[in-house]
Amino acid sequence: MPQALVIGAGPAGLMAADVLSAAGVSVRLADAMPTPGRKFLMAGKSGLNLTMDQPLEDFLTAFAPLPDVLRAALTEFGPPEVADWARGLGQEVFTGTSARVFPVAMKASPLLRAWLARLMAQGVRLTPRTRWAGWDGAAVLLDGPAGREVLTPDVTVLALGGASWSRLGSDGGWARHLAGHVAPFQPANMGLRVNWSAHMAPHFGSPVKGCALRAGHDTSRGEFVISARGLEGGGIYAVSRAVREGAPLFLDLLPHLGVSEVARRLATPRGKATLAAHLRRTLRIVGTRAALLNEFGRPLPADLAPLLKALPLRHAGPRPIDEAISTAGGLRFDALDEGLMLRDRPGTYAAGEMLDWEAPTGGYLITASLATGRRAGLAALRRLGLSPAT
């Protein structure tokens, strides 16, 4: 029976193991953590966003740049296929707000339990607390509870994750074994550091809604949060790449109004009212929005309308990479063939977030991890001369 080694038990590794074991391959699944799917479970704590209910071309625009092999993987296993895969594991899905697709159970744990049960039924052997230690010639080295192992599987799939959330197993330490093939890691879908003045403390933990963020060509209407450390949340993550690349960040406090309408309302007589009271009465600038205006806009100009539509959010850069939801950088696609096999390591494949791609948080990340894990698994089957299970 052909022997496969899959290293990394996140979505990409689990998918590769599923494809291989379903076709009759003996699969060993090694993971550095005590239990599989740690980051997957964490991502599902507040609702597991599996994929997006979007036409494929719209879905693909979230990946920029989009290497040909990643486009092919997502074309073959995109949003409809992810939804069907979840249903095949007994987890019905639904489309929520902003086209996001969730399991009805919302959490990741029922889906992961069902998936692991299927893998075990297909003969997959899981070895936790086992870390990849590189190669010795053609052999794969693993360090685990019993010490070092030297293995020569017929095929190997690396699904080692990115370089964030090290406490869940993704620390990027694998990069030293692939020197020369790795683009530098950078934080993605990350918060921003802000050195707040004292008056902002009462607003820590407060959500900011009904505004729009703009950085470069990217715009986000998503909610974000004022934290003691800075700005965090989905709205910030959506523009984080442009900010990381140097674009200034602006906040539109009144995205439903044009600048001329804002100016018109501000021009109404205010009598003896303070400016704060006038802003509250004419434009409903209160609470967190008023606090942000005072934090970033003072001294306030006489012509206030342009500032309300483009308030510059000064920050001290991204939060540390280990706090980012995901990372940019990783194993470059030019080191891989169309089946995600390492060009200089025939029979060794790579998949998931360890590859050099970037996308928004949520369904895009999980779908691409599943799709690349599947593509690597299928390519490994072809090398073994086997056909996938139907």
Written account of the structure:
This protein has about 400 residues and is an alpha+beta fold. The chain folds into two domains: about 5-185 and about 325-385, FAD/NAD(P)-binding domain; about 190-310, no CATH class. The chain has 13 helices and 21 strands. The strands form six sheets. The protein has a five-stranded parallel sheet, covered by helices on one side. Strands 12-17-16-13 form a four-stranded antiparallel sheet. The protein has a four-stranded antiparallel sheet with strand order 15-14-18-19. Helix 1 runs parallel beside helix 6. The protein is elongated and about 85 Å long.
Question: What are the main properties of this structure?
Answer:
alpha+beta; 390 residues; 5-stranded parallel sheet; FAD/NAD(P)-binding domain
End-to-end distance: 19 Å
CATH superfamily label of the largest domain: FAD/NAD(P)-binding domain
As a whole number of angstroms, the C-alpha radius of gyration is 24 Å
Main beta-sheet strand count, sense and barrel state: 5 strands, parallel
Which CATH architecture of the largest domain is right? 3-Layer(bba) Sandwich
For this structure, the CATH topology of the largest domain is FAD/NAD(P)-binding domain
User: Which structural class matches the secondary elements?
Assistant: alpha+beta
Looking at how many chains there are and whether they match, the oligomeric state comes to single chain
Sheet with most strands: strand arrangement: 6-2-1-10-21
Cα shape:
elongated
The number of domains is 2
User: Roughly what percent helix?
Assistant: 25-40%
CATH class identity of the largest domain? Alpha Beta
Low-confidence stretches: none
Helical run tally: 13
User: How many runs of DSSP E, i.e. beta strands?
Assistant: 21
Instruction: Tell me the fraction of residues in β-strands, as a range.
Output: 15-25%
Average the pLDDT over all residues and give the rounded result: 95
